[in-house]
Design goal:
5-stranded mixed beta sheet, alpha/beta
Length: about 150
């Protein structure tokens, strides 16, 4: 998760919402990425989606059975759906997203028994550091008080 935070900082430095993700399988980091929707002009270029794409390419399979995904912000519906399709084993995330989170905050898609796969989920890991990074980014973006790094 600390590596995901480093990647999130990189995203923020590049003008992207600071979210980082690391996908691990069999103890090996297969993908390390950050949010890139702005630079790619792609609304689907969330860190989670990019991690799934890169891992699929590197492993030669879109099914990522046994993989764990570490991400600094609770995933949205799109990302949670992609994790289900990829058969991710476990999600570990930092800050909750009370507006769009799909791992328990607004929706609880990853554990829905009506679906054919479930993802084990642990939230709140390094949540304060993840949340501080996001709040600072948006504060600076709005030009609010305390906008210096």
């Amino acid at each position: 998760m600390r590596r995901a935070l480093e990647l999130a900082r990189r995203a923020g430095e590049e003008g992207e919402v600071p979210v980082g993700a690391v996908l691990v399988r069999a103890g090996v980091a297969v993908a390390e990425v950050w949010n890139e929707p702005v630079s790619r002009h792609d609304p689907t270029a969330h860190a989670e989606i990019l991690a799934l794409r890169l891992a699929g390419e590197r492993l030669g399979n879109y099914r990522l059975v046994g993989a764990d995904l570490y991400v600094t912000l609770e995933p949205c519906l799109m990302c949670a759906g992609a994790m289900l399709h990829a058969r991710i084993r476990r999600l570990v995330y930092g800050a909750a997203d009370p507006r769009a989170g799909a791992a328990g905050s607004v929706f609880d898609v990853l554990c829905d028994e009506r679906l054919n796969h479930r993802v084990s989920c642990t939230g709140g890991v390094l949540a304060e550091a993840s949340g501080d990074l996001l709040r600072g980014f948006f504060r600076r973006r709005r030009g609010g008080a305390g906008s210096s790094p």
